[in-house]
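Priority: medium. Attachment 1 of 2:
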């Protein structure tokens, strides 16, 4: 997406103004360029959102165009975990363990109403977690029930924009905040 087409460039500019010097800014730019263009997602699909997530990797939508090549089955090889679907209390410790096994920097995308807020199952069930942010910190939310593949692509592009604006200080702060949760 071109910078001119995006409607919220003011907040991006505020994120970029960090007061760092030119050398560190250049190093940050190179590191962030590499990180944002080589995201490897970890599969964590528990319900119908998983089908839409698979469709996003299919030829019609093709994640590979954006540097999100293949879904990894191992958390040690992944940069971002896409939580697609309902999270129940029995699955929450497994999700937390997978998140802890991922190496830094790690990012989380919550996909669908169930991952974001428990969806339609939360009110009538004692076992559904109200949202994945109660288990692990979330970076990007992709709303919908289930969200279309285009919505997941847009969410991943927003994650790339977020990675692009990071600097060394904000990265250290983010890691410290995530490790205390």
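Attachment 2 of 2:
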């Amino acid at each position: 997406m071109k910078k001119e087409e995006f409607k919220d460039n003011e907040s991006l500019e505020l994120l970029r103004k960090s007061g760092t010097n030119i050398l560190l800014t250049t190093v940050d730019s190179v590191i962030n360029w590499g990180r944002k263009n080589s995201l490897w997602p970890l599969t964590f699909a528990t319900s119908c959102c998983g089908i839409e997530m698979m469709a996003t990797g299919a030829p019609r939508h093709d994640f590979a165009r954006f540097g999100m090549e293949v879904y990894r089955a191992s958390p040690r090889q992944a940069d971002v975990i896409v939580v697609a679907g309902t999270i129940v209390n029995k699955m929450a410790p497994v999700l937390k363990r997978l998140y802890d096994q991922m190496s830094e920097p790690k990012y989380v995308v919550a996909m669908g109403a169930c991952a974001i807020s428990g969806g339609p199952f939360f009110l009538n069930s004692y076992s559904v977690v109200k949202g994945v942010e109660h288990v692990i910190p979330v970076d990007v939310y992709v709303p919908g029930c289930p969200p279309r593949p285009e919505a997941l692509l847009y969410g991943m592009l927003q994650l790339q924009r977020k990675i692009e604006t990071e600097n060394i200080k904000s990265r250290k702060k983010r890691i410290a905040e995530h490790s205390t949760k």
